[in-house]
Amino acid sequence: MAKWGMVIDLDKCTGCQACTIACKSENNVPFGSPEEQERRIDLFWHKVIAVSNGEYPGVNVELIPMPCMQCDHPSCVPVCPAKATYQREDGIVMQNFRRCIGCKYCIVACPYGARSFNYQEQEDREYLRPDLPRDFGLDTKSYIGPWPFPHRTHGVVEKCTFCFHRIDQGLKRIEAGEDIKIGVDVVPACVEACPSGARVFGDLDDPTSNVSQLLASRDFIRLRPEFGTEPKVFYLPQ
Amino acid sequence: MEATYTSIEGKSRQYYLALGVLGAIAVAGLASFAVSYLQGHQVFGSSNVIPWGLPIVIAIYLIGLSAGSLILSSLTYVFGQEKYKPIARVAVFLAIVLIFGAMVAIAVDLGRPEKAWRLFMFFYLNNMTSMFALNGILYGGYFVISLTYLGTILANKPKLTRPIGIFAVCWAALVHMGTGAIFGFIATREIFFSPVKPFEFLAAAMVSGLALLIIAVYATLRLNGRSVSYEIIYSLRRLLAMLIVLLLLLVTVDKLTHIYSPSRDAAMFLLTGRYSSLFWSGQIGLGYIIPLIILVHPRTSKSITWILVAAASVVVGIFFERLALVLPGLAYPLHYYPGHVEGVWGQVGSFPIMPVEVVLSVGMFAFLGVLYFLGLKFMDLLPPPEPKPTREPQPAGEPAANEAVPSGE
């Protein structure tokens, strides 16, 4: 079974936020009004933070793009009382909106602030782009995911899914005999959108994948390792 | 010694007035719940930084009051201290009302309250590693056990009451320790994360439950013309002072542990940051110091009025203790990366006071008041108005048996 991971090269990242925008448009995450942003009740599946060290003129600012870390040992999964948050076999931490009761315990437990609560009825009610087929051709009966919950409702928690729908679609195409590779031809929206090629996506279990080779060739860090969550998003420092 | 109990008649103007006012506030609370359900939680003060607001604070506060109240009823029914008998039934009844209120408070804090039943699908739809799911067992079981306990007490079955009482008291202790574990087991929030939390919660529960019991018993007996045994209140006063000292010790250990390690930023935020007044004035001042001074001072400790002031101060102070845990614990920003996180992602969370949330909170308390008053009217909870009872206790279990009871007012 593949284990999907992401490598973000901080040396190449320019902080253009194309990943944030691509995520918002791919998953139809509402943009949020200025008032919502002031109160911090807007939704973000992906964010870019700026971290400064030192004081002017000796100041250093690092830009850290932060999707969900898709931890190997997530702290959000064991706290969910309703089995709404769970880990797929390929390591992606999913949120099932049908099961979610909105207790927000996972937001409290996540060390990366990767989760947002839906504080109001949103205008963009579809989780998907309307130009794409609703179920992506997936078997919705056996499949437990955000779909087939048809609309975005207020009162549930949302998070980044590593664009699992793209991955699953890609796997179907591979099964059907197409010659494509996930991580090269099929990548999450944020990876696809990155203009400087700072983000790489692939299978961590496959030693020939580009993520494995990057991690083998360069020094890498993971965020907040002290929690033992084993994130599957790796950063190559500047 | 055979103590007897009656209900109050509940036909006076004041009774109906109190019921009416509380009922109106409760209806306003229900209306604000409807608003929050239709509009979403944007009408609350909570945000993605501080996802838990007043309803959760009230929930853990009420659970504490409830567990404390029930544990104190054991003085009579488990340890056989006859002098506390006049207040024991009220204590159990109060515990049931309060745990019901706590469950309501948790339900209204859920984003999808219509799915609250999922919290009670133990081992089937629930993830039993979650402290919330485990507490579902504890709260639900507690509710059932306390109802049984009250049933055996009302039915005058002392042989049954004692074992059920022991079980109920142990369960009540677990209930509040489980509530502490909801917070204490979360490593992400440094202010929450502490092995002392369950014990701290248990001590806080007993302190606040005892204080509320003193007030409730005094007010109920006094307003209904029952004679108040000052001896009870004096001995409860000593117990209260001891429990406050215990709680103060536990809190001190908890905070000292957090301050001692070099990664003390979160603890220092609690003690000096934006919400530090909640901690110092509310929790430490109102909750511990003021009542302790009143309770040990040779003059004030002899006065019933002062003891009541101290108890009220504790009840308010413990509410601040809950606030001073939830708000600073969540408001302290997460440090995603070494250094200073700039802009909105590194800001300390703010918690605006929103009208809908406040009305909802007050409404919940009013609703509990309504339940309490109705219980006094329809169940035999209080000692009879005259010091010398002439009747056998109601052979009861049947709450409606109050029709034949002599007038209490």
Descriptive tags:
heterodimer, A: 238 residues, alpha+beta, Alpha-Beta Plaits, 3-stranded mixed sheet, 16% strand, B: 409 residues, mainly alpha, disordered C terminus
The chain-level mean pLDDT of chain B equals: 88
Order of helices and strands of chain B: HHHHHHHHHHEH
Cα shape of chain B: globular
Low-confidence stretches of chain A: 129-149
User: Strand content of the residues of chain A, in percent?
Assistant: 15-25%
User: What would you report as the Rg of chain B, rounded to the nearest angstrom?
Assistant: 22 Å
Structural class of chain A: alpha+beta
CA gyration radius of chain A, whole angstroms:
18 Å
Outline type of chain A? globular
Q: Largest sheet of chain A at a glance?
A: 3 strands, mixed
The name CATH uses for the topology of chain A is Alpha-Beta Plaits
Instruction: Please report the total strand number of chain A as a whole number.
Output: 9
Structure write-up:
The complex is a heterodimer of chains A (238) and B (409). Chain A has 238 residues and is an alpha+beta fold. Chain A has a single domain (4-236), classed as Alpha-Beta Plaits, CATH 3.30.70. In chain A, 19% of the residues lie in helices and 16% in strands. A three-stranded mixed beta sheet of chain A has the order 8-1-9. With 409 residues, chain B is an all-alpha fold. Helices cover 65% and strands 0% of the residues of chain B. Chain B has helices at residues 13-39, 54-77, 85-109, 131-154, 158-184, 197-223, 230-260, 265-272, 276-296, 304-331, 355-378, and one strand spanning 340-341. The relative contact order of chain B is 0.18. Classes of the chains: A alpha+beta (238), B mainly alpha (409). Chains A and B meet through helix 2, strand 2, strand 3, helix 3 and strand 6 of A and helix 4 and strand 1 of B.
